[in-house]
């Protein structure tokens, strides 16, 4: 009965053609027993990635128990080309894995400032209940730990530089110090050996990259869950509930500056007019005094009247 309900909710995915594989089926379609074992599988995968991220490893991979077989027969060009394609495929996979590891750094650079902003708000301006405060701090701490693990995994993935390639030994026989006679089978054997060793290193780097991606995803999840009380407090906080104190000099721009400049201009015009009026009054007084001085000077320059001589003659007689 339960299987029929699951099949109704999750329809089976069919392949487009009988010659093509179908996509993976959902866990619900496989039965409730696999669904119950899913948390255990996820937990074991998490601890495996954690152990792989923190465990030190040797630089070189373990050589295969059975190396590619040696043959003196000449290999067909098609087979040699097939071996070269395997080698190139491993190299392309290496570049793709390293690119994914480097993309984790971009996500970390986005998460760290966001996490710091939330923590500063909680410690300085946050008005949260004690329970909500502990909730937020706990998830922020867990997110910080996941960010550190993701950074460590990405760094270890990028720092792995081991690579096997065909070089001088493929052309020179160092035992007898002679140039090897070309053998397509020997060439193909070298390509398969390099592909095998590099494929092991690619799997090693892929585990570091997978761990970094999982830890980064958990960091985002913990950050979002921990920031929910902060978001609720920001939404519920009324605007303008706390007065803002302004310390220092405040420069007001806009219409207030224009009004202040107009008042200053009017005051200067008024002072200038008063000064001109005072100067005009002083000029009038000066003109009046000059006129008085000119009249006095004119009186002094007038001829004096002569006295009569008759009285003098009488005195002589």
Outline of this structure?
The protein contains 7 helices and 2 strands; from the N terminus they run H-H-H-H-E-E-H-H-H. With 317 residues, it is mainly alpha-helical.
Keywords for this entry:
317 residues, single chain, disordered C terminus, 68% helix, mainly alpha, two-stranded antiparallel sheet
- Class by SSE composition: mainly alpha
Count of structural domains? 3
The helix content, as a percent range, equals 55-70%
Largest β sheet strand count, sense and barrel closure: 2 strands, antiparallel
Helix-strand topology string: HHHHEEHHH
Biggest sheet: strand arrangement: 1-2
Mean pLDDT: 79
Radius of gyration: 50 Å
Outline type: elongated
pLDDT < 50 runs, ≥5 residues: 307-317
User: Number of helical runs?
Assistant: 7
Count of beta strands: 2
Q: Beta-strand level of the residues, as a percent range?
A: under 5%
Span of the ends, CA to CA: 181 Å
Explained architecture:
- With 317 residues, this protein is mainly alpha-helical.
- It has 3 domains: 1-14 and 22-55, no CATH class; 61-235; 255-288.
- 68% of the residues lie in helices and 1% in strands.
- It has helices at 2-9, 32-54, 77-125, 130-159, 184-236, 255-300, 310-316; strands spanning 172-173, 178-179.
- It has a two-stranded antiparallel sheet with strand order 1-2.
- β1 (172-173) and β2 (178-179) form a beta hairpin.
- α2 (32-54) packs across α5 (184-236), α3 (77-125) packs parallel to α5 (184-236) and α4 (130-159) packs antiparallel against α5 (184-236).
- The longest helix is centred in the middle third of the chain and has 53 residues, at 184-236.
- The termini are far apart.
- Mean pLDDT is 79; it is low at 307-317.
